[in-house]
Design a protein that fits this description.
single chain; elongated; Immunoglobulin-like; mainly beta; five-stranded mixed beta sheet; six-stranded antiparallel beta sheet
């Protein structure tokens, strides 16, 4: 009987093994398992009547990249305002222009909030901002730190180059509101928080939304939303500072060919390349003065140019002197292009040294 019992056990194990093997041979398409399962929770007991309150919020950009930290500079120079505001160029209280080529670094910007809590400032748990770039795309979240409430830290509305002075200068608060923030903060009735983020020239221009929030120990939440403008700017950079056709022949068109290689540092008669270091499309324009012969004062007055970028190849021919021409194919942000320029020396031009100027510009 014991032997029979052992055999039955073995048979049972064998049957299980066969079942497992059979399951393992099922087609993969029959599997129903999903490794992602939803989770949820609910914070209960919060009372909106005791929620902390964001009483004021504002933003300030760094106005001096050469100096360490955030610099607010002199009156009237606290941001990159374009006033009077002309939508859609700018229509919020604060405007900031990115640093071209993010040089020496992306533009820094401070986020400030003043908060209070009916249960006392010790009840405040966290303060944060969520920043959204156009068109309503989440950019980043910052957690704000509390700052000391005194004029050494915050300044005042009538003190140039300070936090509250800059907020007043940019129209983000009145003198009375700035004074009240400082006074109530000193009385421990309000707390001021701040954090520093950045705006790269690789990000889109337009209206940025800032959602600020504060929570207390019980999970009550207070919020406030405002907006600021990142200005649309173009930045023309070239990697050459001379165009030299060398020896030319009367009646024969001659080219200086550009290339796609960015020569650093720029300088000399290298193959011309142009680049847009701004955050919005840029049209390239150029023009020529007469090239004047050194000995006989004879003139060369006809030129042409070709711009080759990702959108195509455009030639403007001819280009008369003192005439600004603009290529119809704009360079996108961060895009560079090959620039070819040619000269049309007329028949009968005397042998001489000829000199002149070419100017080049970028426009939105």
């Amino acid at each position: 009987m014991k032997g029979l019992s052992i055999n039955k056990s073995l048979l049972l194990v064998g049957a299980l093994a066969g079942l497992i093997l059979a399951i393992g041979l099922l087609p993969q398409g029959t599997a129903k398992a999903d490794p992602w399962v939803p989770t949820q929770a609910n914070v209960s007991g919060a009372d909106p009547r005791n929620a902390p309150v964001i009483e004021w919020k504002w933003e300030l950009p760094d106005m001096n990249d050469a100096a360490a930290g955030i610099q607010y500079d002199s009156p009237g120079d606290h941001d990159s305002s374009v006033f009077p505001a002309t939508p859609p160029v700018s229509h919020n209280m604060m405007q900031v222009a990115p640093n071209l080529e993010d040089d020496p670094a992306p533009q820094l910007i401070e986020y400030w909030v003043a908060v209070q809590d009916p249960n006392g400032l010790g009840d405040i748990q966290t303060v944060w901002v969520n920043v959204y770039e156009p068109p309503n795309v989440f950019k980043y979240k910052l957690h704000l730190d509390r700052v000391t409430c005194n004029e050494a830290t915050l300044g005042n509305w009538n003190l140039a180059g300070t936090v509250l002075g800059a907020a007043y200068e940019t129209g983000q608060m009145t003198a009375a509101e700035a004074g009240n923030i400082l006074y109530q903060c000193n009385q421990n009735n309000k707390a001021v928080y701040h954090a520093v983020g950045d705006i790269s020239k690789h990000q889109p221009c337009g209206e940025y939304r800032v959602e600020a929030g504060v929570t207390d120990l019980a999970g009550n939440v207070g919020t406030m939303t405002n907006w600021f403008d990142v200005l649309c700017v173009v930045g023309l950079e070239i990697d050459f500072d001379a165009v030299d056709w060398g020896g030319i022949t009367p009646g024969v068109r001659d080219w200086v060919q550009g290339d796609w290689t960015w020569d650093r540092p720029p300088g000399g008669s290298v193959p011309p390349t142009v680049k847009n270091t701004g955050n919005t499309p840029m049209f390239v324009g150029l023009g020529f003065t007469e090239m004047v012969g050194y000995n006989f004062n004879q003139l060369i007055t006809v030129f042409d140019a070709r711009l080759i970028d990702l959108a195509g190849d455009v030639t403007i021919d001819p280009i008369s002197t003192w005439t600004l021409v603009t290529f119809p194919n704009p360079l996108q942000s961060n895009e560079q292009a090959k620039l070819d320029v040619s000269i049309h020396p007329q028949w009968g031009l005397p042998a001489d040294w000829y000199n002149g100027w070419m100017w080049i510009q970028g426009s939105p």
